[in-house]
Amino acid sequence: MRIFAGSCADAYLSRGEGQPGYTMVVWRGRHVAEPTELTEDEATHYWHELLTVGRALEAHFRPAKTNYQILGNSVPHLHTHVMLRYEDDPVPGRPLPWPEADRPPVPLDRYRSEVAALQALLHR
Q: What's the domain count of the chain?
C-alpha cells in the first residue's frame, strides 16, 4: 500500500515479502533506469524523498540498520528497495534471502495500523 506520495517518488510498504518494514520507493518522473540518468535537481529531490521515507521507517520500526538497494535487474525503472535489518534477522550480518517465501504476510489489521502510522509520520 502506498505510504508516501512525494513530488517525484511514491513509497509502498510491503505486506508479504522480506523483513518487517520492507518498502519500495519508486521514481515517478520521466522514465529512467539508473540514478545517473537524473538531472542534478531530479537527483536531489529523489534522494531527499527517499531519505524522508527512510527516516519515517526508522522512527516507526526501530531497526538496527537500514539498507538501500537500487537493483533494477528485472524492472528497469529507477526504484529503491528499503530493507530494514534487525538484531534478530534470520541471517545477521549477511544478505537476506530473497524473497523470503517462508515468511507469512503481516496480519491485515497490523499492516493497516503500520500504514496509518507511517502515513502520519510522513505527512507532518
A: 1
Q: Which residue is it, cell 505527512? A: 123
CATH of residue 53's domain is: 3.30.428.10
Q: State residue 101 phi and psi, 5-degree precision.
A: -65, -25
Gyration radius (Cα) of the chain, Å: 14
* pTM of the predicted model as reported, rounded to 2 decimal places: 0.91
Q: 51-94, pLDDT tens digit by residue? A: 999 999 999 999 999 999 998 788 889 999 999 999 988 787 88
Number of DSSP helices (H) and strands (E) in the chain, helices first: 2, 5
Cα 34 from Cα 30, distance rounded (Å): 12
Q: Which domain holds residue 78?
A: 2-122
